[in-house]
Amino acid sequence: MARLPYTSGELRTNGYYGYGCYEASFKPIPVPGVGNHVVGPTQRVQLNFWANDDSYTSRNEILPEPGFDPTQAHHRYGFKWTAAGIEWFIDGQRVHSVSDSALNPTPKATESLLEPPQESQPPSGDAATLSVHEISVTLDSRATRVIARVGVADGLGRPVSGAAVSGRWSGAISAGDTARTTDAAGVATSYSSRSREPGLVQLCVANISHVSLAYVAGRNVESCDAIAKQRARIPGTSPARAGPRRRRRRAVAHRWHGRRGIPRRRHGAAVHSRVASSYPHRVRPAARQPWPETPPRWHDRPMIIDAWAQHPTARHLAHPMFDSLRRWTRGDTGLGAAPGGSGEWPVSVTLASMDEGGISRSLLSAWEGPHGSLIANDEVAAFVREAPERLVGVGSVDLSRPRDAVREVRRCVRELGFKAIRILPWLWELPPTHARYYPVFNECCELGVPFCTQVGHTGPLMPSEVGRPIPYIDQVAIDFPDLVIVCGHIGYPWTEEMIAVATKHPNVYIDTSAYTIKRYPPQLVAYLRAHGAAKVLFGTNWPMIAPRKALEGLDELGLPDPTRAAFLGGNALRVFGL
């Protein structure tokens, strides 16, 4: 996690992190020629921040006395960073805090995500060499495995892709990935083996090889990083009373669904139980929450959540790729001119359509493609602000710039409050298994938000192959078992493939957007009535299909009341954590 200049025992966020809580355990070691943030004869700890990354003109420094000698043992140092200010902690006890003000501004997440300015310090070094620029280690969501990220840069500080990084695991876990290749952002990600035993886990870089650059170990910013892990246990249980807790949750689910309601687990699909699910949220995740004892309601009527909708911009409405959809729907679609001939739709148009169809909440999606934004994330955030009780934001990112894409995912979730990220493979003409998606998948896992995508053939005149559930969604779910994937548009004509993948992987779901109920494939209806009752979400793809039209024929599906409630709103409520 350290960045130049290197310091013995340092925890900082510049360059890569946003608001949140950070903590590390370390023991500063006095080394000649290396800065030490434990200073003075009384062994004070230095706390400081800058209002704009590493701009030293706005430096703030505090030197509290911790009451012990920090160089004699490991202690936990951390801080909580919010828009309102910063709090510092030592061994879990708050030692200092500052509040944001006009006279003394604290850093903002949008500033921290920028690289430190380089204009005043022209790059220097040997472009023919490479070294370790940074190492960070984190625990996965279950605290059973360590994830290590090694950043590799050349002598000018530029990220190096295609470098083979070899490493050694030691400590409480001594096995795992020993060789990984850096991606387009210059980062090699390695995973240790899983273990529930506590202790310190360390990864050290042994060697780096590249076809044209020479590895200079002496220039490494750091060669090792470690993290302390606690004994892991099954989420939602206590060691002493795991059995009774599980039995009580089964009883709750049984009461809500009834004696002939939704089965708890069939054909390998884990549902309902917090113990069985592997949803990745750091806090109590929606997908692990027990089912409510009564179906969800919205203002005294059953809750209906539209899992995929758009509030279109003029750019989106006018795009020629939607001409084929207009032909299919014979003009019975919202993909036309804005009401009244104006350039943009008011949000009231979408809300009126929701009211007509009885929709409680809609997840509004941004559209980012290789030629720019058809609906930008900030535009979606503005729509949501007009009706925050009815509208929920879903972000999108530019795959052509992987590092910027990761930063934008963080901004969408942490600052804009979005509940998911959506990328359309056909729009990029890249299958979900392409390397450009994987940094986004990883960040969705870290932030605990679902990744939404499209499966099946495409309505616009674009290739459909990238929408096949097998092999693409199946492979992504294997590579990222903690990633929640919501697959929109049913998957037709590969519906059976989509059902097989959703059944195989506990974190893969289907939404019915772009289809009216009367056009649901028989296989999907059978799946919804049986073991897929917890895996299918209602969606419209508004403005292509109005909610009222999408729901016509609902009674003809013959769904039991619990299944109907889960399909219309309960599943989305749980999956998106609404």
Q: What descriptors fit this protein?
A:
578 residues, alpha/beta, Jelly Rolls, Immunoglobulin-like, TIM Barrel, 3 domains, eight-stranded parallel beta sheet, four-stranded antiparallel beta sheet, 14 helices, 32 strands
CATH C-level name of the largest domain:
Alpha Beta
CATH topology of the largest domain: TIM Barrel
The average pLDDT value, as a whole number, equals: 76
Helix content: 10-25%
Distance from N terminus to C terminus (CA atoms, Å) equals 33 Å
User: What is the count of structural domains?
Assistant: 3
Describe the structure.
This protein is an alpha/beta fold. The protein folds into three domains: 106 residues, Jelly Rolls, CATH 2.60.120; 101 residues, Immunoglobulin-like (Sandwich), CATH 2.60.40; 279 residues, TIM Barrel, CATH 3.20.20. The chain contains 14 helices and 32 strands. Helix 7 runs parallel beside helix 9. The N terminus is likely disordered.
How is this structure best summarized?
The chain is an alpha/beta fold.
Layout: helices, strands, pairs:
Layout: E1 7-8, E2 20-26, E3 35-36, E4 38-39, E5 44-45, E6 47-50, E7 59-62, E8 75-82, E9 85-90, E10 93-99, H1 109-112, E11 129-139, E12 146-154, E13 164-171, E14 179-181, E15 187-191, E16 199-209, E17 214-215, E18 224-229, H2 242-257, E19 265-266, E20 269-270, E21 297-298, E22 301-302, E23 305-309, H3 314-318, H4 323-328, H5 347-357, E24 361-365, E25 367-369, E26 372-375, H6 377-386, E27 391-395, H7 402-414, E28 420-422, H8 425-428, H9 438-447, E29 451-454, H10 469-479, E30 485-488, H11 495-504, E31 508-511, H12 522-529, E32 536-537, H13 547-550, H14 561-575
Parallel strand pairs: 1-3, 11-17, 23-24, 24-27, 27-28, 28-29, 29-30, 30-31, 31-32
Antiparallel strand pairs: 2-8, 4-5, 6-7, 8-9, 9-10, 11-12, 12-15, 13-14, 13-16, 16-18, 19-20, 21-22, 25-26
Helix pairs in contact: 7-9
